[in-house]
UniProtKB/TrEMBL annotation:
Telomeric single stranded DNA binding POT1/Cdc13 domain: residues covered: 1-94
Protein name as catalogued: Telomere-binding protein subunit alpha
Any single GO BP term: telomere maintenance
Species of origin: Noccaea caerulescens
GO MF terms held by the record: DNA binding
One Gene Ontology cellular component annotation held by this UniProt entry: chromosome, telomeric region
InterPro entries: NA-bd_OB-fold, Telomer_end-bd_POT1/Cdc13
Length: 95
C-alpha cells in the first residue's frame, strides 16, 4: 500500500509496547472509491514492538509499505491491519 499518514511511535502502557499507526491506500482500497460499508476509505495498520526502532518509519507520503501475513478486519467502521507477532508476519518499507 501507499503511505498517506503515519503517527510517531508512542508507548502503550497496557500492552507494554510501542505502537505506531500508518494509513495506507492501494488500487482496490482508496479514497476515490465509494464503499457504503466503510466509514473511511483507507487501511489503518497497527504495529507493536518493545523497541521503537523496530517499527517502520516512513519518511514521506507516497512511500510503499509491503505487508505479509497481517491480520485484517473491520473495527468501529474502519478497516484495520494488525502485525502478528509470529515468525511468518513481516513488512518492508520502500522509499
Amino acid at each position: 500500500g501507499v503511505v498517506i499518514d503515519s503517527t510517531n511511535a508512542y508507548f502503550e502502557e497496557t500492552k507494554n509496547k510501542y505502537v505506531k499507526k500508518i494509513k495506507l491506500v492501494d488500487d482496490t482500497y482508496n479514497t476515490s472509491r465509494y464503499n457504503p460499508h466503510q466509514k473511511y476509505s483507507y487501511l489503518t495498520v497497527f504495529f507493536y514492538s518493545p523497541k521503537p526502532e523496530d517499527l517502520p518509519n516512513p519518511r514521506r507520503i507516497g512511500d510503499i509499505l509491503y505487508l505479509r501475513r497481517f491480520s485484517f478486519g473491520k473495527y468501529n467502521d474502519s478497516f484495520q491491519g494488525h502485525y502478528l507477532e509470529t515468525q511468518y508476519c513481516s513488512w518492508a518499507l520502500l522509499s
